[in-house]
Amino acid sequence: MSRFFSACSPPRRRAFGFLVLLTASAIVSCSSLGQTSGVNVGPNFPSKTLYASNSNQNAISIYSGSASGKGPAYQIGGSNTGLNGPQYLAFDRGDNLWVTNYNPSTNKATLIEFAALATGNVVPLNTAALAGRPRGIAFTPKGPTPQPSSSASPIPKIMVVADTNPQDVFPNRIFLFVAGSTFPYQSIGGAKPGLNVPGGVTIDGQGHIYVANIQGATVEQFLLPTPSPTPKPTPTVSPTPTPSPTPTPSTSPSPTPTPSPTPTPVNIYPRFAITRKNQVIAPYSVALDPMGNIYIVDQGRPNAGCSSKFAPAILVFPPYNKKIPYTKPIRKVQGCNTQLNAPTDIKLNSDGVIYIADSTKGGAGIILVFPAGANGDITPSPTYNSPGAVTGIGIIP
User: Fold this and answer.
1) H/E element holding 188?
2) N or C: which end of the chain has fewer CB within 10 A?
3) Pairwise pLDDT comparison (64 vs 389), residue with the higher score
4) Portion of the chain with pLDDT greater than 70, in percent
5) Alpha-carbon span 99 to 337, nearest angstrom
6) Which residues have CB under 8 Å from 314's CB, separation 6+?
């Protein structure tokens, strides 16, 4: 059984899934900050604004109208934020930003929530320390609540987090949460799912979870287990706008152990899997376009040349159809012109434009942008520079 720990022992806290989440005021009491210290909100960012984790500078970069080859226009970073090795990120239905963190030097992991439009050295709305190494994070999409393909009940508003914890009996899991719940209502893990270092995740409008298995060389789809009952979410507080300072590297507070049990995972086979026989080698993340096509960002074989068929690539597959087995991708973005090097995340906006978190040969962080329907050895345009290493990216819906 895994254990997850609260970040401190404040006078007030609320529970969310298997993580002990602390309110912003509670965090202030832990760090001796004023009740409004560090709360900053940037401009009213338009839809499709790009966010990227700056993993080695403990910040989130925000690209709002930046020209190709330029850096971020705004940042979230500084000692108040608690960012400590930010990994992947996602937006909930209220456009609040959620970030998974893992610091390999301290082996500490956290999940942090920021208010929509927050920038600068901002105090999080919620934070939690946890065991393991969290990577991908995703929420059920916005819009009218659809019906899952195998149930008459509406799809719940949930969050999923991919986690690897060698100390756990079930070391590779997908955790599922409902806002306001005390513990996760369920997790997916065990022998049947075949999870092996899960990376990026996403959820479609029919309640299916997609996960990229980095070391398992598969991308799998699972039907969303439905929670019952569904708790009512707690509303968040809107902070007051103030200027955006430049972030500085930070460290998170040492957590005080508070054991929390987690449920025995659902040991189920995936509904389907895209595997090595479909040209998958080292998938790091997965995304969907508005038509339901499946996009996989794959690092390929180590040291494969950019002209090799084993080079890093974006693989595109059609929506699953059990009557037509997958063979090869319907499109593949690969080649020296693509600049793909060691991609770690992929996101698509509502127009199908493709965003890739990557790094240059020299190790600098970069975001590559490809047009909707991209195929072949195509040059990205635009590209965005990062002041540090980029792991995960997110697009405001």
Assistant:
1) strand 186-189
2) N
3) 389
4) 74
5) 31
6) 295, 296, 297, 298, 332, 333, 334, 338, 340, 343, 346, 354, 356, 370, 374
Structure tokens at 11: 């006078």
Best CA proximity match to 72, nearest among 93, 100, 47, 42: 42
**pLDDT tier, 66 (very low <50, low <70, confident <90, very high otherwise):** low
Amino acid identity, position 125: L
For residue 147, give the 3-state DSSP assignment: coil
Q: Quick one: 48 exposed, middle or buried, by C-beta within 10 A (0-12, 13-18, 19+)? A: middle
Helices (H), the chain: 24-31
Looking up tokens 């893992």, which residue turns up? 102
Q: Where are the alpha helices (DSSP H) in 311-366?
A: none
Pairing of strands 19-23, 126-130: antiparallel
Q: Report the helix count and the strand count for the chain, using DSSP H and E.
A: 1, 26
User: Running DSSP on this structure, what letter comes out for residue 260?
Assistant: -
Place of tokens 């995972």: 265
Quote the CA–CA distance of 167 and 240 in Å, as a whole number: 42
Q: For 274-286, give the DSSP string.
A: E-GGGT-SSEEEE
